[in-house]
Design goal:
Length: 115
């Protein structure tokens, strides 16, 4: 009977060790499967993420360009309004840019030498 008890002890110990090994192996395989799935999803969505990032940078540059153009438009609108409604401004622009003068007026221009 003693032989049977020792045999029973070996069988019990083997049963205890085997499931532990298979449980660990199963856990490792589950982790590898999840990691592989996440890696696959990451590889699939990386080009989309990169394209979205590029488009975001392009949008920011276009918005900056839009604000510059809006400021230039506002300045041009102001000048147009002054040219249409302000006679003194119109005379100043005509004298400076077109070299126009009033009758009896003398204009002196001093050109500075270029460095």
């Amino acid at each position: 009977m003693k032989f049977y008890e020792e045999d029973d002890f070996v069988v019990k110990r083997r049963r205890r060790n085997e499931p532990d090994f298979w449980h660990r192996l199963n856990r490792v395989l589950q982790v590898l499967i999840v990691a592989g799935f996440l890696l696959t999803v990451g590889i699939m969505f990386y080009p989309v993420w990169q394209k979205q990032n590029d488009m975001r940078h392009r949008l920011l540059s276009l918005e900056a360009e839009k604000s510059e153009k809006t400021a230039a438009l506002a300045e041009n609108q102001r000048q147009l309004d002054l040219l249409r409604n302000d006679r003194e401004y119109l005379e100043t622009i005509a004298r400076d840019r077109l070299n126009v003068m009033k009758p009896g007026e003398t204009i002196f221009r001093i050109d500075l030498p270029r460095s």
